[in-house]
Amino acid sequence: MVEGKNQWKAWIYLLPCLILLLIFTVWPIFNTVRVAFLDGYNGMKAVGGTEFSFGIKNFSDVVMYKEFGTCLLNTILLCVITVPVSTLLALLIAVCLNSIKPLNRLLQTIYFLPYVTNTIAIGMVFAAMFNIVGTMGTQNPIITTAGIINNIIGIFGVEPINFINTGSSYAANMAVMIIYIVWNALPFKILILLGGLQSVNKQYYDAAKIDGTSRSRTFWRITVPLLSPMIAYVVITGFIGGFKEYSSIIGIFGEKLGPASEPGRLNTMVGYIYSSLSLGNEGRASAAAIILFGIIMAVTLVQLYVQKKRVHY
What we know:
The structure is a single chain. By secondary structure, this protein is mainly α. It has a domain at 67-278: MetI-like fold (Orthogonal Bundle). It has helices at residues 7-36, 43-47, 57-64, 68-99, 104-112, 119-130, 148-154, 170-198, 203-210, 215-226, 228-243, 247-253, 269-278, 282-310, and strands at 133-135, 142-145. A two-stranded antiparallel ribbon has the order 1-2. Helix 4 (68-99) runs parallel beside helix 8, helix 6 runs parallel beside helix 12 and helix 11 packs antiparallel against helix 14. The longest helix has 32 residues, at 68-99.
């Protein structure tokens, strides 16, 4: 507790941080809400003296946009599929790492490396792995290089699959994105869950061994309940991050957000916001940002409600 006579010193120390928060966090949030309710707002026109009426036209324009359904569907699909899969895989890997004593630190470092690697760079590597160099779609397709992934599945007699190139299917594109997002999300979740596992009282497991409890029952009846706060945390943060997915798609498919034959196929809500900003539709971009915020808030509140009944502290 800071003594009353010395509180002014604490405020002086906090002042630089408070000023930065006001400039780069509080004001942008306030301005986004303001701009969202100014119909057809454009920054350059506003500088020129143009006045914009107050209304909800920006929101209606976002909802009525012909590709809005695609952006929302892609965003929801990526969240609903990748978050549970990545959380379950991270939990299993964390349990395995916690039980391995030799090379434990080395394995933890290897698993954590993707988290500190640039997202765009990783996306480019994945694009090269799933890429097919050559021509496809002709009567006599010529494939120069099938790519690493196709070479691997070719061992099992599977014909090369067009994952990301021209003429590829939506399912193939989504499969690549799901694999990439799950892989990229694992390090952070493994770190959190592994930390939780290492803080669990070993007496619970010793008692389970004495009672002859099977490993699967120990996992579901002891490990999962004791880790429920950490699981809830990674699930909530996973959904928040999933709804903001954009850079990974850019890394694999480039600015077209899809194969050359279907540009924009994998566009998301954040991608729509960026495209609106590039076109000078700041009002529409702000409205889309508020809609996305509302969706994230609703999903988070539902998760917090479920967490009260399922999470054990």
